[in-house]
Specification:
Length: 321
């Protein structure tokens, strides 16, 4: 496990390395953290693909970013992560248009909604947050590996600490549904995927880097499924008293951007805010819980994910250490 290093409390998006000539694909970039990432990367010269379910909202976000960042290069791609058919169509369009992808940020997600199912019948949070991103990354992997210094950033959460993988009931068909535990399961899966992907990339001799990051507690639309009390507590109106447990999306996105762009980032690492409880603050190198580092469970999750999505990676499973 990586050791935790002291954060650079002066690091902001303005200190990102130049991104000119690089293509970044960001899921869920029409609002929240994804939109902030798109704006920041475009401001540093990247060409950004806003991959989202509602392309009208994607175009609205692109227009707003162009107004802030004159000359920003942005395009919108329809991607509904609740449908593997949509994932395959979006990946095919990207593959047709681009010979390489320098940066993929697996950002989009849903948090603690009532029990729902994807088009394939997967539990919604596990299907959208993990399985769809697993499939999307795999379908684009050859384009990612064709880039000179590619990165894959998968967004997790402090909520992974409350999650566990029940391989006998990943989709909550036999248990009473617990939306918080289901969210934790999906965010734990995000981490395990990022770590196992790095292990396979490294074993294959690839230079691509797979890392994970989390935004702490950020004021975004993800809280829409929480109670009115929680939404109010996280709101900007209470900033004078909740500043230590909730931050703006502009601040919450910094660990993601650090993981995506800084030169000292290494594969298999995890970045989050440096403040108390990792709720807020500047980015730092952090670590996840012991469950996320269970290599046996990582390999099993990988196999199950390939079976459920029908997407296989051109990366052989490395020998167990």
């Amino acid at each position: 496990m990586p050791s935790v290093v002291a954060p650079d409390r002066n690091w902001t998006a303005d200190r990102m390395p130049d991104q000119s000539g690089r293509c970044a694909v960001i899921t869920g970039a029409n609002n929240g953290l994804g939109r902030e990432a798109a704006r920041a990367l475009a401001a540093r010269g990247a060409e950004v693909v806003i991959a989202c379910r509602d392309t009208a909202k994607g175009e609205e976000a692109a227009g707003a970013i162009r107004a802030e960042v004159p000359g920003a290069r942005l395009e919108t791609l329809e991607l509904d992560l609740a449908s593997l058919d949509s994932v395959r169509t979006a990946a095919r369009r990207l593959r047709d248009d681009r010979s390489r992808i320098d940066l993929l940020i697996n950002n989009a997600g849903v948090m603690t909604p009532p029990l729902g199912r994807t088009a394939e019948g997967f539990e919604q949070q596990f299907g959208v947050n993990h399985l769809a991103h697993f499939a999307f990354t795999g379908l684009l992997l050859d384009r990612i590996l064709a880039a000179g210094d590619p990165r894959i950033v998968t967004v997790s959460s402090v909520a992974h600490r409350r999650g566990g993988l029940d391989f006998d009931d990943l989709h909550w068909r036999t248990r009473r549904y617990d939306r918080v535990a289901a969210y934790g399961q999906s965010k734990l899966a995000n981490l395990m995927f990022a770590y196992e992907l790095q292990r396979r990339l490294q074993a294959a001799g690839e230079t691509a880097v797979s890392v994970a990051a989390h935004p702490g507690v950020s004021r975004t639309g993800l809280f829409r499924h929480h109670s009115p009390v929680v939404r109010a507590a996280m709101g900007s109106a209470l900033r004078p008293v909740n500043f230590w447990i909730a931050q703006t999306a502009e601040r919450g996105v910094l660990p993601l951007l650090y993981a995506a762009t800084e030169t000292d980032v290494r594969g298999g690492r995890y970045y989050g805010p440096a403040g108390f409880g990792e709720f807020t603050g500047p980015p730092k190198l952090t670590d996840s819980n012991g469950r996320s580092h269970d290599s046996t469970a990582q390999r099993r999750l990988w196999q199950v994910s390939e079976e459920l999505t029908g997407v296989t990676y051109p990366l052989a499973e490395p020998a167990s250490s």
